[in-house]
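pasting for ref
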Amino acid sequence: MVKRLLLGPVLIVLMLGLCLADERVGSASAPSWLGSGTFPPGTVIWPACLALAWGGALELARMLRAKGVVASRFVTPLAAGVGMAACGTALVFEDRSLTVAAMTIAATISLIASQTYYSRARTFEGALASAAGAMLAFVYLGVMFGCVALIRSEHPVWILVWVLLTTKSSDIGAYFTGRAIGQHKLIHWLSPGKTWEGLFGGTIFAGLVGWAGLWALERACGLAVPAPWTGGLAGMLFALVGQMGDLGESLFKRDAGLKDSGETIPGFGGFLDVLDSVILVAPVAYWWLRLVHPPPV
């Protein structure tokens, strides 16, 4: 836990640094061959998300192999990567039908790659599970996590920062509330450390952070943002969805007989252990922003 408390702020600073770099690059002059005066939004954030998705897919492949599924260390990350690439088209094309078309092509590539890789053994047993694993990587780490890029394509980078900080603040609120007054186990057979009190505390804290974040962006930064009170509701929604993401990833790990998805990040585990809540919240946040604060036409 000491490692987590020490490394947590470092990860937050790293995230803020990436977002600040993305904003700076987005205002810099771009080469003429890009066809626009500046670099598109997400020029820094999208490659970072792609790298995280690739690392998470390697961990997912490890879980699948632990269950006897043929999961390639190349095909599984490839499926996540082409899904992320499809979402990345939103950074350069305003027509969202092109993004949808890119997703269908990416899904086709993922499925064919999985079937081709498996058929090398000249057997059909387990082919369905192998293909399902590749498509899980495509949807889970490519499309769902790729919604981070979609949010950045339509909104200022600090709106994305607000989404991420609000989502992760739920973990902080849940941890300290659970430590202080937690008595009733949430799902003892899946995640013994989580309590109903922690869930409630994390939800309330995320609501406060969501409200305060939009208020600060509006007053201090002068950004056009949704009404701050809607940020409180969004924060509570993000907290609940994020907890589902956390529990869902725990379900995968327990089935695979693993405590952590990996050992890449000291005190946290692997990439999936850090991204689990964000992966599920990203598509919800994208559509919430679309409904409450649609981008200018």
